[in-house]
Design brief:
Blueprint: H1 12-30, E1 71-77, H2 81-97, E2 101-107, H3 111-121, E3 131-135, H4 139-145, E4 148-149, H5 151-157, H6 162-166, H7 170-175, E5 177-178, E6 181-182, E7 186-190, E8 192-197, H8 198-203, H9 215-227, E9 237-241, H10 244-252, H11 259-263, H12 276-290, E10 294-298, H13 304-310, E11 316-320, H14 324-331, H15 337-341, H16 350-354, E12 358-362, E13 375-382, H17 387-400, H18 403-411, H19 420-424, H20 426-434, H21 436-450, H22 463-479, H23 484-506
Parallel strand pairs: 1-2, 1-3, 9-10, 9-11
Antiparallel strand pairs: 3-13, 4-13, 5-6, 7-13, 8-11, 8-12
C-alpha cells in the first residue's frame, strides 16, 4: 500500500516554495499541550508502506561551487563539558581548513531548551540555525516540521558523501530513518550503562567481574549490599527517574511503545505503552525505592546521582555512557569534580573520589544485559532559501563525519563510533583496549553492536510531551504514593490524546 500525499513528509523543495505557511503550521504542532498520563490501545498493527522517495533536487549540496565570498552558517547544540569543546574544536578546525565557509557554534542549553527555541523560531525562519544537533527524540518532529532536508536527499545530490553513509552501522541508520528514508546527517550515539563501585560489591560478597545482568539480578545484588551494612551507604542503587531508561528497557525487550512498527512505517497514532513489560519495569523501580534499595532523583541536569557514587552513599549507578570521559578524568585524577561538573559538584571529597575502584558494565535489561536501542543526538540540515548556506551546512557535516573528527568525538566527547571504519581504526581499537575510559566505552560500544537493527526505538511526533509526562508519572509513583497500575493507565490515556492531536495536525 502506497502512502497518501498526506502521509508523506513534506519535501524541503516544497518547503522553500511554501516555507512560511508550513513552518507556521509546524509551530502550531509544537505548541500542542500535554496532560501526559495513560490508557491501553489494542491496535498494535503496522501497515506496509513504500519507502519515502529520495529526491536529489531537494538538496542543493553543490551550491557552494558557485557561491562568492564567505558563507556564514550557525550550528545549534545542547552539549556541555568535553562534548561541547569537541564540537567547537571541529568547527574551528573546519574554518581553518578552507576559506569558503565560516561556522559559528552556539550552545542553547539543555535538550528541552534547544527544542523550545527551535520550535519558537519556526514561525520566523530567519531565526533558525543552518544545522541543529538535537536529541534523538526529535526525529519525527523534525521530519513533520518540513524544516529539515533528509540526509538521503543530500547523499543522492552528493555522491562523494556516499561512502560514509554506506559504512554506517545498520542500527544507527535505522534509528534515524522514517519510512525507510534517512533524515539525520551526523550522529552522537550513547548508551545507558551501569557504573559499579567494586569495593562495595566485594564487601557484600559479590563478584567484581560478573555483574548483575537483569533487573531481577540488580535487586538481588542490592539486597546483599544493603545487608552488608557498608559505612556511609544510603541506598545500594542510584539513578535519575529519566524516561530514557524505561524506554530503553522496553526497546530491548522488543516491546512497541506506539503502533505502526514503533512509528517507523507511518506516523504513530496509537499508544502501546500500557503493557505487561511496562508494568514490570515501573513496579521494579517503585519496589526498589520502597524497600530502601534505590535512591531515585527526579530527572534534571544536575549530577547528584554521580555524587552518590563518588561519596560512597551508593554502589550501583544506572546512567549514560557520555559521562565516561568526565568520570574518568575525575577518578583518574586528571581533573577536578568542578571542572567536569560546571561548578555543580556539591559536597564531595575530591581526594576520596580519585581512589574509587569504579567499573562499567552493560546496562541490566528485563531479560538479559546490554539490550536496548540507539540513543543520543543527531545533526539535521535545516532547509532555507539560501542554497549556499544549505550547501555549507552539508559540507561542514561531511567534515564532521571524517574519521579524524569522529575519532575525537569518541576519545573526548564519549560518543560511540557509528561507522565500521571508525570502529576498526587502529587508534580507536588501541583506546578501547589500552585505556580505562576506552575499556569503559568499549562496554557501551558492545551494546551498540548488539542492537537489533530491525527493532529501532520509537519515532514519536509528540515525543517531548511523552517524555515530560513519563517523568511526571515516574515521580508520582517512585517518589510519591501513586498506584503504579493506575498511573500507567492515566499516563497512557493522556499520551494517546497527544498522539491523536499530533496525527490530526500533520495528516497522519
Amino acid at each position: 500500500m502506497s502512502p497518501t500525499r498526506a502521509d508523506r513528509p513534506p519535501t524541503p523543495r516544497a518547503v522553500r516554495r511554501r516555507r512560511r505557511g508550513l513552518l507556521a503550521a509546524a509551530a502550531a504542532v509544537a505548541l500542542l499541550s500535554c496532560a501526559c498520563g495513560g490508557g491501553n490501545s489494542d491496535d498494535g498493527g503496522s501497515a506496509e508502506v513504500e519507502d519515502s522517495p529520495v529526491d536529489a533536487a531537494n538538496c542543493p549540496a553543490k551550491a557552494l561551487d558557485d557561491a562568492t565570498g564567505v558563507t556564514e552558517i550557525t550550528v545549534w547544540h545542547p552539549y556541555n563539558s568535553l562534548t561541547q569543546s569537541t564540537l567547537e574544536k571541529a568547527a574551528a578546525d573546519y574554518n581553518a581548513s578552507q576559506d569558503k565557509v565560516k561556522v559559528s557554534v552556539e550552545s542553547q542549553g539543555s535538550y528541552p531548551e534547544l527544542l523550545k527555541k527551535y520550535e519558537d523560531s519556526l514561525g520566523d525562519p530567519a531565526n533558525l540555525p543552518d544545522v541543529i544537533f538535537s536529541e534523538d527524540t526529535t526525529t519525527q518532529f523534525m521530519v513533520d516540521s518540513g524544516s529539515v532536508i533528509a540526509a538521503a536527499d543530500c547523499i543522492a545530490a552528493d555522491p562523494d558523501a556516499k561512502d560514509f553513509y554506506d559504512d554506517l552501522l545498520p542500527p544507527v541508520e535505522n534509528a534515524y530513518s522514517v519510512q525507510g528514508k534517512l533524515w539525520a546527517a551526523a550522529y552522537g550515539v550513547s548508551m545507558p550503562i551501569m557504573y559499579v563501585n567494586n569495593d562495595h560489591l566485594a564487601a557484600a560478597g559479590l563478584s567484581t567481574e560478573d555483574y548483575p545482568g537483569t533487573l531481577a539480578e540488580v535487586r538481588t545484588a542490592a539486597e546483599k549490599i544493603k545487608a552488608a551494612n557498608i559505612a556511609g551507604l544510603e541506598a545500594p542503587v542510584v539513578m535519575q527517574l529519566y524516561g530514557w531508561f524505561p524506554e530503553n528497557w522496553l526497546t530491548g525487550a522488543k516491546q512497541f511503545i506506539v503502533n505502526n512498527d514503533n512509528g517507523r512505517t507511518e506516523v504513530a497514532t496509537e499508544s502501546e505503552f500500557d503493557n505487561d513489560t511496562t508494568a514490570e519495569i515501573i513496579n521494579w523501580m517503585n519496589d526498589m525505592e520502597a524497600d530502601g534499595l534505590l535512591k531515585a532523583y527526579p530527572y534534571s541536569t544536575d549530577i547528584s546521582q554521580f555524587l552518590a557514587i563518588g561519596n560512597g552513599s551508593a554502589s550501583i549507578l544506572i546512567d549514560g555512557s557520555r559521562a565516561i570521559t568526565a568520570v574518568d578524568a575525575v577518578v583518574g585524577g586528571g581533573a577536578s569534580v568542578d571542572d567536569v561538573a560546571g561548578g555543580a559538584a556539591g559536597t564531595i571529597d575530591p581526594n576520596a573520589i580519585k581512589g574509587l575502584d569504579v567499573n562499567v558494565a552493560p546496562v541490566p535489561g528485563v531479560d538479559e544485559p546490554g539490550q536496548g536501542g540507539v540513543w543520543g543526538s543527531a545533526a539535521f540540515l535545516v532547509a532555507g532559501d539560501d542554497d549556499a548556506k544549505v550547501a555549507a551546512g552539508w559540507d561542514f557535516l561531511q567534515y564532521f563525519n571524517s574519521t579524524p573528527v569522529q575519532t575525537q568525538w569518541l576519545l573526548q566527547g564519549s560518543y560511540l563510533p557509528v561507522t565500521q571504519s571508525v570502529q576498526d581504526a587502529p587508534e580507536v581499537q588501541a583506546y578501547f583496549t589500552d585505556t580505562q575510559p576506552g575499556r569503559w566505552l568499549a562496554t557501551a560500544n558492545s551494546q551498540l553492536l548488539s542492537v537489533d537493527p530491525d527493532f529501532p526505538g520509537p519515532a514519536i511526533g509528540p515525543y517531548n510531551e511523552f517524555r515530560a509526562g513519563l517523568h511526571s508519572m515516574l515521580d508520582d509513583v517512585v517518589l510519591g504514593s501513586a498506584d503504579p497500575a493506575t498511573a500507567i493507565t492515566d499516563f497512557n490515556d493522556a499520551f494517546q490524546a497527544d498522539l491523536t492531536s499530533y496525527a490530526d495536525e500533520v495528516g497522519g
